[in-house]
TrEMBL record:
Entry's family note: Belongs to the heat shock protein 90 family.
One Pfam family per UniProt: HSP90
The organism of origin for this protein: Rotaria socialis
InterPro entries, alphabetized: Hsp90_fam, Ribosomal_Su5_D2-typ_SF
Record lineage: Eukaryota, Metazoa, Spiralia, Gnathifera, Rotifera
SUPFAM superfamilies in the record: Ribosomal protein S5 domain 2-like
Keyword tags: Chaperone
One GO molecular-function entry: ATP binding
Protein name: Uncharacterized protein
Length: 70
């Protein structure tokens, strides 16, 4: 949470702090990955990254928005 806050509030270090952030993905299981790791494994013609903010992975997976992207 403090790193996320730093990305927003610390303009001098936001780029460096953003590299420390990790995200759960539909393919990563219990492991969280960096944005650069995600970009490296994107499909060849994938142009967009869709995301959802939720309190838990379970809550995110139950969202009707997730269903529309699959």
């Amino acid at each position: 949470t403090n790193i996320k806050r730093g990305v927003i509030e610390d303009s001098a270090n936001c780029t460096r702090l953003a590299k420390l952030l990790r995200y759960a993905t539909s393919l990563s299981g219990d492991k969280q990955i960096s944005l650069s790791q995600y970009v490296k494994r994107m499909k060849l013609k994938q142009e967009h990254i869709y995301f959802i903010a939720a309190m838990s992975i379970d809550e995110a997976q139950k969202s009707p928005f997730v269903e529309r992207t699959q």
